[in-house]
């Protein structure tokens, strides 16, 4: 997950993910990185988005807070995490 420490949507997504016992969850706080601008440019090329949060599961871009909210509401996140062997 790519995040910024002050972003309210990043905070909400981290809280949402904390409800799952995700093995090896990696959170990159872009605002703490020396290469923040370069990292954001790479993410934008990869995802088409310049905003955070950006969540990847097993190397696949899933989306941001709004997409994850829908996935959680539909009860699909646990299955996605199990397929990725993240639980």
Report on the structure:
- With 87 residues, the chain is an alpha+beta fold.
- The chain has one domain (2-83): Glutaredoxin (3-Layer(aba) Sandwich), CATH 3.40.30.
- It has four helices and four strands, in the order βαβαββαα.
- A two-stranded parallel ribbon has the order 1-2. A two-stranded antiparallel ribbon has the order 3-4.
- The radius of gyration is 13 Å and the shape is globular.
- The model has no long low-confidence stretch (mean pLDDT 95).
- It comes from Strongylus vulgaris.
- This is Glutaredoxin domain-containing protein.
- Residues 1-62 form the Glutaredoxin domain.
- GO terms for molecular function: glutathione disulfide oxidoreductase activity.
* Alpha-carbon Rg, integer: 13 Å
Query: CATH superfamily, please?
Result: Glutaredoxin
How far apart the termini lie comes to 16 Å
Report the average pLDDT across residues: 95
CATH architecture: 3-Layer(aba) Sandwich
Q: Give me the strand/helix succession.
A: EHEHEEHH
According to CATH, what is the topology? Glutaredoxin
Strand percentage lies at 5-15%
Give the number of domains.
1
Q: How many helices?
A: 4
| Overall spatial form | globular
Q: Number of DSSP strands? A: 4
Biggest sheet: strand arrangement: 1-2
- Percent in helix: 40-55%
> Which regions contain 5 or more consecutive residues with pLDDT less than 50?
none
User: What is the highest CATH level, the class?
Assistant: Alpha Beta
What structural class do you assign from the helix and strand content?
alpha+beta
The major beta sheet can be summarized as: 2 strands, parallel
Protein name: Glutaredoxin domain-containing protein
GO biological process, one term: cellular response to oxidative stress
InterPro entries: Glutaredoxin (IPR002109), Glutaredoxin_euk/vir (IPR011899), Thioredoxin-like_sf (IPR036249)
Pfam family, one: Glutaredoxin
